[in-house]
Amino acid sequence: MKTPGKLGYCFGVSQAIEKAVAFAEENGPLNSLGPLAHNEDVVAYLREHRVTPITMEEVLSTAVGMNVGITAHGAPPETYDTLKERGCQVLDCTCPIVRKAQAVVSQLMDGFDVVIFGDPDHQEVLGLNGWAGGAKFVGTFNDLFTAGQGYKRLGLGKRVGVISQTTQIPPLFVDFVTTVAHIIERERFQELRVFNTICPIVAARARKTNELAKRVDLMLVVGSLESANTANLATVAKPGAGADNVLIIQNADQVTAALGNWYAEAGFPSREAVETSFRIGITAGTSTPIKTVNEVVAQVKEIFE
Ligand code: SF4
After folding, report:
1. Are 211 and 153 members of one domain?
2. Active-site choice (124, 187, 272, 305)
3. How confident is the model at residue 273, as a pLDDT?
4. Is 3 among the domain residues?
5. Which cofactor does it need (predicted)?
6. Mean pLDDT across the chain, nearest whole number?
7. 152 vs 184: CA distance, rounded Å
8. Are residues 283 and 233 in the same domain?
9. Domain coverage including residue 19
10. What percent of the chain has pLDDT over 70?
11. Of the candidates 194, 214, 244, which is a domain's last residue?
């Protein structure tokens, strides 16, 4: 059983959790605009420490002056304005790497038609879109094509700027940028400006996960189905471990059931044959606590060793 180096929270998530808990201890209950980490166990831990996720609609429909936390994913400028208007005390937990991407899109792409590579509904991307003053296109690789698999017309101007959601995977960003370049070459572009705003921690973990997946028979990705980073790690593990041999699990309680389903679906002759000869790799999203990862590792060791 192997892991791709250091796992557990990235510094952005760990900093946000520490700041929020310390704030709530000192100032009373804190409402975070969305979960501070896309991990159900972490959300439960934070609730115990009086940090509760809330939506913007709930902020608008409750009394003024509440304590509101911006998560590590950041928020658009309008959100800060609204919170200020409502007299909220704001704790800004935006990750410094996300803040840098916001600065790139708001300061270095002035006069450019902005294209954002990422999930249009993700909190971080909504924030980046706001700092861009409204991107001309937001989406992933497949969104660049029509149903007939031709290039979509993007209708971009002469100067085009492209950035990425920080938790995307570098090779996918390269494919995306290359395709955008092909598309705008047919339109009227003169200048293409690309900033690699992908988080280096995410990039390194993705690369190591991909390398590890090539050396094992089964990859377990520990994290929430809600986490963009966990989903992306599962994607980069697939070409190595094989698409059917990558399982996403949230915690140690799910290990036995997930493996049981996998044995049955894969049609292995005997469970014992798998457990004595298979090589297992374990990776985890950046919002998965190290405690959860260690519990999964212990559970897998108990089964396989
Ligand atoms: S994954 Fe990277 S960008 Fe996202 S919160 Fe963690 S350190 Fe920040």
Report:
1. no
2. 124
3. 64
4. no
5. [4Fe-4S] cluster
6. 90
7. 10
8. yes
9. 11-93
10. 95
11. 194
